[in-house]
């Protein structure tokens, strides 16, 4: 629906107004008047306000008159720049609202009419006790619901007229706090909210009404961390990504894996941020578990559309994960013991009320179990992974705060076999022979290292700034070692494939609050990418000659990525909430520049207090690609930059949605979204080209194409009471088309799943016991199967030769679909509170009714068939074909 011309003019006017405010023009005086005051050059000076006014009068020859009703500061300062008299005065009176009049050589300052006087309330929303900041908290007045939302660091600013007000702060999983106040001047308020998981006992009417009215962003979903911890988990491993996969419009790919396919996009099209740092691989154990330790996380936000301008660099989704900051008041922590891994978390003050730390460590003991099971065996297989999260925060003063956060995670796999005992001559006459053991070995490893250093600064009650420097490094390797005996000499061969991506980034972000229900965000970001598309190292030590060391495909690329964004969020006519902005991206790769201008807009209109409509348009670009060689997102997938032959990816997405809540207590809610998305310049391996094809350059192995996705998403929620939960349904279709693949015909995308259903139910039996049930259903995903098999001898004039074999041919890509997927998981949490600790036992079953869901389909021949009449059967491989119980023990102290 296109807005009428007056409404459109109002929207444009408000955006321009926000831009004007950002250029430094103050709203404290009437902008329409012409500044005819003389220009003055001053040295930087500070002192009492009357002294500075007299100095300005001496330098300008003008008289400055001001009303005694103006809130004049006792002391001030003047900058050393050349400015007009009016600009110097505006700087001196920057915290006072005034109007001015010019008569002859006199500047007269008067307070605005009382109805125009407004004061600003700013501050932070934090968790009581730990002092953790709470991002995206609702701050609003009652009963008129004027308000705002805290930023990622809990800061908020709201402007109100003088008088009596009641200011409220609310956050999911916390009790709402209300503060009555008599507002006579600018005020600083800190809300300390108490955690409260029994949401049914909280008055949530005001909280949900304000959140519904002001949620301008489409597809923005906040997942409370306590809900994630209560969800049944495979082998007891609490997994953030598994919870995200259950949201409408998001798929996980194959069963058990931690990939994310959002509205037809691939895993590389998701901007996954851990404390503002991109994570390039999110899987442990080849993707069965994610790298995010729930004990180290406080906030998870998921955006599928309507992306604000402050996010960029990917074209499908944003997963914004924030780590715990550290308790500045007291030491606390927890210990987790599960079937697969255990972890410990600790946080507390370094200097009470000033600084705090949070540290979490998780490690699997699969290698220890395997070592016991394989004791005495020469052939062994070993695997382990670990995560280390750490964060430090320091409050310098009321306006400045520092954060230092880091993550280190690693996976390591190794198998050893073919052990041989050797006796070698040590090379000296009469010397004792050397005895040694050699073996063959396969190994692989991958992992992330990320760090972030950030500085928060409150410039004034309306302007908040954040400066961040980040580092992200992702590497993987695959290796093989072989030993061969040739003429009584041993030939050693080693091959190692290495690849990865490394980022250095600096960015600055500002939040500006020019008026009530009006927030402007703007900032800059610079990223230096370092790519290693793949280097294959071959080392050979022949028994009769010198060692040989060969390096193949050692190509190292760099790319510079620069972002600037401007975002304005405001309310029109009390019912229309607008988030409008744009992002400009410049990418420099291989001495070639690419650029993209990305407009974004989201509209939310209140049809009634319980019903709203929303729509959004987003244009996104992406200058790095992930090229996959399998149907599963594995750590061996390659990250590649834009080059002269590989253009950037683009997407355009339009969404339309609605939210409805029942009754005054809003016990039930329904949300629905429809979307359409176009994707340009997707990458795919060419046909007959693979991962270890050294005959061509890596760019020549790839081809580009386009994609299209559209769908419907519905979700029904029960919000309050002992029994809560939600049911979601997704209807979607995604197709791809590549000129050099599938004869140029379009085909279903890799995880084009037509129907998805997710059911999540929770029941609070009492304060100590709760239960959770999840049921998932998904129609079959596309698969390519050969439609014919034929004999292919080496020489056409021979019937058969030792090298003869069979070839298979598929008529079309993804022309078949796998059987449907469905699974039920149940879990129970039993807690017991003691004086200083809480003990929780978590028990449950994954795949309760033993559904054999397909992971892989393949053809197998019947070896007992008569010659010339072999039958081929299509068979299925299932990863979890039976119920899998789990148990986890948690101690909170």
Automatic annotation (TrEMBL):
Keyword field: Cell outer membrane, Membrane, Receptor, Signal, TonB box, Transmembrane, Transmembrane beta strand, Transport
Superkingdom of the source species: Bacteria
One GO term of the biological process aspect: siderophore transmembrane transport
Gene Ontology CC, one term: cell outer membrane
Major localisation: membrane
Keyword Hydrolase appears in the UniProt entry: no
Subcellular location: Cell outer membrane
Record-annotated TonB-dependent receptor plug domain positions: 237-314
Keyword Signal carried by entry: yes
MF GO annotations: siderophore uptake transmembrane transporter activity
Transmembrane spans: none
InterPro entries in UniProt: Beta-barrel_TonB (IPR000531), Beta-barrel_TonB_sf (IPR036942), CarboxyPept-like_regulatory (IPR008969), Plug_dom (IPR012910), Plug_dom_sf (IPR037066), TonB-dep_rcpt-like (IPR039426)
Chain ranges of the TonB-dependent receptor-like beta-barrel domain: 396-848
Membrane topology type: Multi-pass membrane protein
Family from the record: Belongs to the TonB-dependent receptor family.
Name of the protein: Outer membrane receptor proteins, mostly Fe transport
Lineage: Bacteria, Pseudomonadati, Bacteroidota, Bacteroidia, Marinilabiliales
């Amino acid at each position: 629906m296109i807005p009428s011309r007056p409404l459109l003019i109002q929207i444009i006017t408000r955006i321009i107004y926000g831009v004007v405010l950002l250029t430094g023009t103050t709203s404290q005086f009437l902008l329409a008047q012409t500044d005819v005051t003389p220009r003055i050059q001053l040295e930087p000076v500070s002192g009492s306000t009357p002294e500075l006014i007299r100095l300005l009068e001496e330098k300008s020859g003008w008289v400055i008159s001001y009303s005694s009703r103006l809130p004049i500061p006792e002391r001030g300062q003047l900058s050393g720049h050349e400015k007009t008299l009016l600009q110097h005065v505006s700087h001196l009176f920057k915290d006072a609202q005034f109007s001015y009049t010019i008569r002859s050589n006199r500047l007269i300052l008067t307070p605005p009419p009382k109805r125009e006087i407004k004061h600003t309330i700013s501050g932070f929303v934090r968790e009581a006790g730990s002092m953790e900041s709470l991002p995206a908290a609702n701050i609003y007045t009652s009963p008129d619901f004027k308000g705002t939302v805290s930023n990622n660091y809990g800061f908020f600013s709201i402007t109100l007229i003088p008088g009596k007000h009641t200011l409220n702060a609310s956050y999911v999983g916390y009790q709402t706090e209300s503060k009555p106040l008599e507002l006579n001047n600018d005020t600083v308020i800190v809300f300390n909210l108490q955690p409260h998981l029994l949401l049914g006992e909280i008055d949530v009417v005001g909280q949900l009404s304000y959140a519904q009215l002001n949620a301008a962003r489409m597809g923005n979903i906040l997942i409370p961390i306590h809900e994630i911890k209560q969800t049944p988990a495979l082998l007891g491993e609490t997994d953030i990504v598994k919870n995200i996969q259950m949201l409408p419009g998001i798929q996980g790919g194959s069963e058990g894996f931690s990939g994310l396919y959002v509205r037809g996009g691939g895993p590389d099209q998701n901007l996954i941020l851990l404390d503002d740092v991109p994570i390039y691989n999110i899987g442990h154990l080849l993707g069965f578990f994610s790298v995010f330790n729930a004990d180290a996380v406080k906030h998870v936000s998921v955006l599928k559309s309507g992306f604000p301008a402050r996010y960029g660099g990917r074209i499908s989704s944003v997963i914004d994960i924030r780590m715990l900051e550290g308790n500045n008041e007291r030491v606390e922590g927890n210990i987790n013991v599960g079937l697969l891994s255990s972890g410990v978390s600790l946080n507390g003050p370094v200097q009470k009320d000033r600084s705090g730390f949070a540290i979490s460590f998780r490690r699997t003991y699969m290698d220890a179990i395997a070592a016991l099971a394989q004791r005495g065996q020469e052939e062994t297989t070993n695997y382990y992974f670990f995560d280390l999260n750490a964060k430090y925060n320091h409050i310098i003063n009321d306006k400045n705060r520092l954060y230092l956060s880091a993550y280190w995670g690693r996976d390591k796999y190794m198998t050893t076999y073919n052990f041989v005992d050797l006796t070698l001559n040590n090379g000296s006459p009469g010397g004792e022979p050397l005895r040694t053991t050699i073996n063959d070995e396969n190994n692989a490893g991958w992992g992330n290292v990320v760090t972030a250093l950030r500085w928060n600064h409150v410039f004034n009650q309306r302007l908040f700034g954040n400066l961040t420097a980040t580092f992200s490094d992702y590497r993987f390797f695959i290796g093989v070692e072989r030993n061969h005996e040739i003429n009584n000499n041993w030939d050693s061969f080693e091959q190692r494939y290495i690849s990865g991506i490394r980022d250095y980034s600096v960015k600055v972000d500002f939040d500006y609050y020019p008026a009530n229900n009006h927030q402007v965000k703007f900032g800059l970001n610079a990223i230096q990418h370092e790519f290693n598309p793949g280097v294959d190292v071959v080392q050979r030590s022949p028994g009769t000659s010198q060692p040989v060391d060969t390096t193949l495909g050692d190509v190292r690329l760099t790319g510079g990525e620069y972002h600037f964004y401007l975002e304005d969020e405001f309310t029109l006519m009390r019912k229309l909430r607008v988030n409008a902005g744009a992002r400009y991206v410049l990418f420099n790769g291989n001495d070639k520049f690419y650029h993209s201008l990305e407009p974004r807009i989201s509209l939310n209109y209140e049809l009634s207090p319980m019903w709203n409509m929303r729509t959004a348009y987003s244009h996104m670009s992406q200058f790095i690609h992930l090229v996959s060689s399998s149907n599963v997102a594995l750590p061996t997938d390659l990250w590649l930059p834009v080059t002269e032959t590989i253009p950037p990816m683009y997407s355009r997405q339009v969404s339309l949605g609605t939210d409805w809540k029942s009754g005054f207590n809003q016990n039930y809610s329904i949300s629905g979204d429809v979307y359409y998305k176009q994707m340009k310049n997707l990458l795919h391996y060419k046909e007959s080209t693979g991962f270890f094809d050294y005959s061509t350059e890596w760019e020549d192995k790839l081809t580009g194409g386009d994609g299209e996705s559209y769908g419907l998403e519905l979700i029904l929620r029960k919000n309050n009471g002992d029994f809560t939960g939600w049911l979601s349904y997704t209807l979607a279709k995604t197709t791809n088309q590549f000129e050099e693949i599938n004869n140029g015909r379009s085909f279903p995308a890799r995880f084009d799943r037509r129907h998805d259903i997710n059911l999540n139910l929770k029941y609070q039996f009492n304060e100590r016991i709760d239960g959770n049930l999840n049921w998932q259903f998904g129609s079959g995903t596309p698969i390519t199967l050969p439609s014919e098999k034929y004999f292919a001898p080496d020489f056409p004039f021979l019937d058969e030769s030792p090298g003869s074999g069979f070839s298979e041919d598929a008529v079309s890509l993804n022309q078949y679909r796998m059987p449907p997927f469905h699974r039920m998981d149940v879990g129970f949490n039993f807690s017991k509170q003691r004086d200083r600790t809480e003990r929780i036992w978590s028990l449950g079953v994954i795949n309760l009714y033993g559904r054999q869901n397909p992971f892989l389909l393949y053809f197998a021949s019947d070896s007992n068939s008569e010659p010339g009449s072999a039958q081929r059967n299509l068979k299925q491989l299932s990863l979890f074909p039976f119920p899998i119980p789990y148990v986890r023990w948690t101690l909170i102290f």
